[in-house]
Design a protein that fits this description.
It is built from twelve helices and 20 strands. Strand 18 and strand 19 form a beta hairpin. Helix 10 runs parallel beside helix 12. The longest helix has 18 residues. The radius of gyration is 24 Å and the shape is globular. The two termini are 30 Å apart. The relative contact order is 0.10.
């Protein structure tokens, strides 16, 4: 059973190096996050997912951890992070840290010991073959960089050696079983990291590459799932309100493995990409593009199956964007974004808002930074106000972690605050509505009422009817509103017996 506080949770994802620089060195930091907590709360977000803030050589922006129990000095200190927990809790907010359990940096002390030829306590903490010329049998590996006469398996970049959680199917002498003593020690080491931060006030973790732990797993990830069920048992016993959200993208598996939430990721063909990121297709027919040949069933065919199968197990989390995904402003106009967010924030589960999406920050074409590559353009500094560095930092512009949007019309919080027609205030209004109406929260029932092409998409959340029309013409859905009247409207709506008519590019909630 998921933690009770998730029922009315809305998360805000913060990329710490790009959020707010409190000391003028050009890099965002934890004291800067603390200074902006009231802003985050004003949006209607009562929880934060903080991207990796641990000590790291930053070859993959912190997803290459050098010390799980130490805050990276560029962000501050452990005491700063503990103060963030306290300040958030004082405001009724929660903080999730980003846990990277599948690999570490090649500079982690565990790996420094593991790569030594002489046998030691960490020799089996990572996955090594039995020869300096033996490959990984289908797994990526690095050779020629260790003292020991072996090659090591990597999870992602060359600098990220895979921790040893064992193998589901053992196919070579150097592969250890998932329940081998070495694999179990790795599991306990990661549980120790989790306890360390939970004891200091952390409210849980977003888990990076959550399905990647046990190698040669079966299609249902049975062995990796057993690891997470063991972690879940520890949390249930000692930290019952702590939560886990998985980077898995398969809620049928993730929620049964003990996660409270699983992200609906932007993986090709899974439906989420059809909402606003269909641009890898010959024609961009993203549902929320006004000029698209849209069909909501491209999303619903998968979503409804996942939703029905996992009800009562946990939550599917829809997100506006994340640090790995091009910002939605890349292809959607401000009006299209409003309708898209209206849909995302009124669906079941626990939604996530990526910093800056609430003001329509753009995706910038930039060279790679800290292993970001094409992702770098979604990681630029938060735009707070007009003027120097758009309010992100007092540092010289050439010292910023990444450049700010150079456009003369770059959106900022200050420019949109107080304007009821702005994207920022629309987000605030939508999240206030979600918190106010119990049927719009995580567990309110969901039913699709009209999914026909050429009609508005109409869906039910409990007793509420919701309708969205992203097109450039007025459309009518053959759904009787049954006496319901408009509660919240973007654009225009007419609800009469036998039909709900939406003006072009409109959204409505009927009660």
């Amino acid at each position: 059973m998921a933690a009770s506080w998730l029922k009315d949770a809305v998360f805000y994802e913060i990329y710490p190096q790009s959020f707010y620089d409190s000391n003028g060195d050009g890099i965002g930091d934890i004291p800067g996050v603390i200074q902006k907590l009231d802003y985050v709360k004003s949006l209607g977000c009562n929880a934060i997912w903080l991207n990796p803030c641990f000590d790291s050589p930053f070859k993959d922006a912190g997803y290459d951890v050098r010390d799980y129990k130490k805050v990276a000095p560029r962000y501050g200190t452990n005491e700063d992070l503990e103060r963030l927990f306290r300040e958030a809790h004082h405001r009724g907010m929660r903080i999730l840290l980003d846990l990277v359990p599948g690999h570490t940096s090649e500079e982690h002390p565990w790996f420094r010991e593991s790569q030594k030829e002489e046998k030691n306590a960490f020799s089996d903490r990572y996955i090594w073959t039995d020869s300096w010329i033996s490959g990984g049998r289908g797994l990526n590996f690095v050779a020629g960089e260790a003292e020991r006469a072996s090659v090591y398996i990597v999870n992602f970049f060359k600098c990220q050696p895979a921790l040893n959680y064992g193998f589901g199917r053992v196919e070579a002498p150097w592969q250890m079983a998932h329940d081998s003593p070495a694999a179990l020690r790795t599991r306990e080491a990661m549980k120790d990291v989790m306890r360390f931060w939970l004891d200091r006030g952390c409210d849980g973790f977003r888990v990076d590459m959550a399905d990647s732990l046990v190698k040669n797993d079966d299609e249902r990830k049975s062995f990796t799932s057993s690891v997470w069920r063991d972690v879940r048992a520890m949390l249930d016993a000692d930290y019952p309100e702590a939560v886990l959200v998985s980077e898995w993208g398969a809620p049928k598996l993730a929620l049964r493995a003990g996660f409270d939430m699983d992200f609906y990721l932007n993986n090709w063909g899974n439906g989420y990409s059809t909402l606003m990121r269909d641009y890898d297709q010959p024609v961009d027919n993203s549902y929320f593009r006004a000029a698209a040949d849209r069909d909501i069933n491209r999303f619903l065919d998968i979503y409804r199956d996942w939703y029905e199968d996992t009800r009562g197990l946990g939550y599917i989390s829809l997100l506006t964007c994340n640090h790995d995904t091009p910002r939605p402003r890349r292809t959607l106009t401000e009006r299209e974004l409003k309708l898209c967010y209206a849909f995302l924030f009124t669906m079941p589960g626990v939604p996530f808002l990526y910093y800056g999406d609430e003001i329509g920050m753009r995706y910038l074409e930039l060279p790679t930074k800290e292993g970001g590559y094409t992702r770098t353009g979604s990681r630029t500094p938060m735009q707070w106000k007009p003027g120097k560095n758009l309010g992100f930092s007092e540092a010289p512009s050439d010292q910023l972690y990444l450049p700010v949007d150079p456009a003369s019309d770059a959106p900022t919080v200050a420019a949109e605050e107080g304007d009821p027609d702005s994207l920022l205030e629309t987000v605030r209004a939508l999240l206030a509505l979600r918190h106010r109406e119990e049927d719009l929260r995580a567990e309110g029932p969901f039913e699709a009422l009209c999914t026909e092409k050429g009609s508005p998409f109409v869906y039910r959340r409990g007793s509420l009817y919701l309708a969205v029309n992203p097109s450039l013409e007025a459309l009518t859905a053959p759904v009787d509103p049954e006496g319901r009247s408009p509660l919240f409207v973007l654009g225009g709506v007419s609800a009469e017996r036998g039909g709900i008519t939406l003006a072009p590019q409109s959204f409505a909630v009927l009660k």
